[in-house]
Write a structure and sequence with these properties.
about 120 residues, mainly beta, four-stranded antiparallel β-sheet, 11 strands, about 0% helix, about 55% strand, elongated
C-alpha cells in the first residue's frame, strides 16, 4: 500500500539544526495524518510531532518551540525542521503515515525504516 522513504538524518552539534523529510509512495488515493516519532534503546517510542491533512499540528513537550513539522499534500511528503538540538534529541526517528482510503481503521498506518539522528555535546 504505502512505502515511506526518509532522508536527512545524521550528525549535528548541540545547538545546531537538521532537517528530515519523508516521502510516501505506493497505491493510495491520498495520505491522511503524518508524523514523526523517535526511539532510544530501552525506551518507548515517543511522539515528536504530527500533522493532519488539513495542516493542524501537535508536538511532544520535549520539542515544543524547537522543532517544526510541515507537509506537502501534492508531493505526499512530511518534513521536520529541528533547531536548537540537544544531546537528548539523539534517537532513531521514524516517519508515520496513514494511507487513504482506509476501510479497516487501525490497520492503515505505515512506518518508515527509521533514520539516525545523533547530537553531540
Amino acid at each position: 500500500q504505502v512505502q515511506l522513504a526518509e532522508s536527512g538524518g545524521g550528525l549535528a552539534q548541540a545547538g545546531g539544526s537538521l532537517s528530515l523529510s519523508c516521502a510516501a509512495s505506493g497505491l493510495f488515493e491520498s495520505i491522511g495524518a503524518m508524523g514523526w516519532y523517535r526511539q532510544v534503546p530501552g525506551k518507548q517510542r515517543e511522539l515528536v510531532a504530527t500533522t493532519t491533512r488539513g495542516f493542524s499540528t501537535r508536538y511532544g513537550d520535549s520539542v515544543k518551540g524547537r522543532f517544526t513539522i510541515s507537509r506537502d499534500n501534492v508531493k505526499n511528503t512530511v518534513y521536520l525542521q529541528m533547531n536548537s538540538l540537544k544531546p537528548e534529541d539523539t534517537a532513531v526517528y521514524y516517519c508515520n503515515a496513514e494511507g487513504l482510503p482506509c476501510f479497516d481503521p487501525g490497520n492503515c498506518d505505515y512506518w518508515g525504516q527509521g533514520t539516525q539522528v545523533t547530537v553531540s555535546s
